[in-house]
Amino acid sequence: MRRSQRPSPSSGDPDPLPCAHGGPAHGLPGNLPAELNRFVGREDELADLARLLEESRLVTVVGVGGVGKTRLVSTAAALLEKRYCDGVWLVELSAVHDPELLEHALVDALGLTDHTSRPPRTTLLEHCAERRLLLVIDGFEHLVDACAELVRDLLRRAPRLRVLAAGRLPLELDGEALYPLATMTDEDALRLFAERATAVQPDFRLTERTRGAAQELCRRLDGIPLALELAAGRLRALSTDQVLERLDDRFRLLTGGSRSAPARHQTLRTAIGWSHELCAPEQRLLWSRLSVFAGQFDLEAVEYICSGSDLPAESVLDVLSGLLAQSIVLREDSAAGTRYRMLDTVREYGAEWLAATGDTERLRRRHRDWFLGLATWCELDWFSPRQGEVAARAESELPNLRRAMECSLERPEEAHLAQYLAGTLWFLWIGCGRLSEGRRWLDHVLEEETPYDSSRLKALWVLGYVAVLQGDPVAAISALTECREEADLVGDATASAYAVHRTGCLALVTDDMTRAQELLHDALGRYRELGELNSNVLMAQVELAMAVGFRGELDRAVTICEEVRDICEDHGERWALSYALFVLAFAALQRGRPARARELLGESLSISHAFHDLLGTVLSLELLALVTVVEGDAAEAALLQGAAEQIWPSVGLPLFGSAHYGAPRARCEALARHELGEERYASQRRAGGELGADAVVARALAGRPGKQREDADSGGPEAPGPQPEAGKTRKPAASPASGRGGPERW
């Protein structure tokens, strides 16, 4: 076959060293096949392989079937061709099934002829001994032991030889540089799909109408190149939307690959099935059971859920390691520790095998029970120094927690477990910025008719809490009233206390400060009687401090929040602390201490953002904007207001529609408009709206880039006069005169 022109290596590619038989040849030997279509994307991976082949004599690319190993190593070898004056030689081993024929396959690939009675290994060793060549070995996994032995001998006897291997297993030789090949990036996957789609349907274009479906298709197919190319082939008969609709049966849909492709790549099922055939029986069993997980999972969960008499818990780690080695399971290190996952395509293949054994329902309920226990542990550990770890763990387990709720809702008699789970995850919905999803699940699980036990009552008060924060008072009062009435009927004092507490929170955000104080005092008394102390109890204290602070009782508000801060420090609590710091900043600014307010808000904002708590983040930004204009930087204040405005839709009703919470924004806007003028104020606000949450928080924490104040605690325009800040005494201080420091002073 005549070889096509290949892309040249980068200009920085080193010149080849002199060959054993003289200088570099003008016509380089080799047997790389011509490319029949254009290689798309993977620029970073190609650069990585070029670097690794400079550093190591053996580089092995591993990955799941269809991920693009063969095409990547072939393209990389072609780009590096001029480095190897004795050629780049491809050895395709997928069709070789007898280990005794392995050496013959290499001899044939190198084009060697030897009519003597010498063993083929001797011929190979003599040929490669002094030559500078690159041997590309593909599809060796079913011959891994024999292949590893041969490659080891070749590398020992041929010091100028380089080997680039591609397979589903590593060779596990000394000096091997392992390169796990990930699926394509979203951008590359879309480029590949579009190019292959154009090849089968010349008028195909990515338009506003087709782009969304194409992106979702790429995501659903995990960015696996083989799957994308097979899907593109279906566009001869189907639209992109139709292909997407049929992906629930992807193994039947994604067939009919190119006739020029290896047999194992003709269909997606064959590609994945090739890996399945290479697995030992216990590996196939674990693969099927791992399909009950959604998203990531950890070793402890696997040992509990997937073990049994046919797969002892103590053997799970070894079996899992085998699946990792074959790229069936992928390892991911995250904030939650070492985690594992399977690509959706691989998981669905395992799910078919699990269904065939009739064990799906048992495994799903075992999975559900594990994650019920995990949620219980996370809620208890939220009020501890491990709060950050709990947040990271819950975030990483969210797909599994969703699946556990779905499983519990499938049977009416188990619906209370879904209610328990949705209520127990209050810290995830509220503390980690998932109000919208929490509201969806709570509404959904409460649709089921169940007795008013502790699970249903908890889901009701958590729903009320979420609705309060979203600025939905009708839904909030409905859920909280139902919870309190039913809790009183069944004698559930804990649920009743929480319902009273959250009703007080509702009064707070709807500007009924008198009722808020009464209800929050009542709730705190109930908590003391129950011996309850956790983040919710601390938030009741913070909310009481907000209520009295809004009424001008700054000393009392500060005293309450200082006490909360002490308790948080004793228990390692950070989330409730961020809100206590917000109230302390509010009081500091009221007293004419903007520098102190900025310091407190910086700590509050840092904590809230770390937890992805959008409510805490946006409240801090709103107050920080007022601090900034008081310090004399109206332009930066307007920018912060614009950024906050873009965050509120992800939380709920901006500033709860509250006059008290809205007072800092109104005052900031008035001062900034006066200083900047209407046009510049609007321009700065638009600029802030274009910043993402991460960018604006980083900007706020770095300190304002505008004018520097001459006096750190000067009042600025119309700032309240300075007052001494209360110390850390836990005794309530005398209230200042009525109205002093109240919201009207903004």
UniProtKB/TrEMBL annotation:
InterPro entries: AAA_16 (IPR041664), HTH_77 (IPR058852), P-loop_NTPase (IPR027417), TPR-like_helical_dom_sf (IPR011990). Residues 1-28, 697-746 are annotated as: Disordered. Residues 1-14 have a biased composition (Low complexity). Residues 285-355 form the Winged helix-turn-helix domain. Residues 38-163 form the Orc1-like AAA ATPase domain. It comes from the Bacteria. It holds the Pfam family AAA_16. Gene3D superfamilies: P-loop containing nucleotide triphosphate hydrolases, Tetratricopeptide repeat domain. SUPFAM superfamilies: P-loop containing nucleoside triphosphate hydrolases, TPR-like. This is AAA family ATPase. It comes from Streptomyces brevispora.
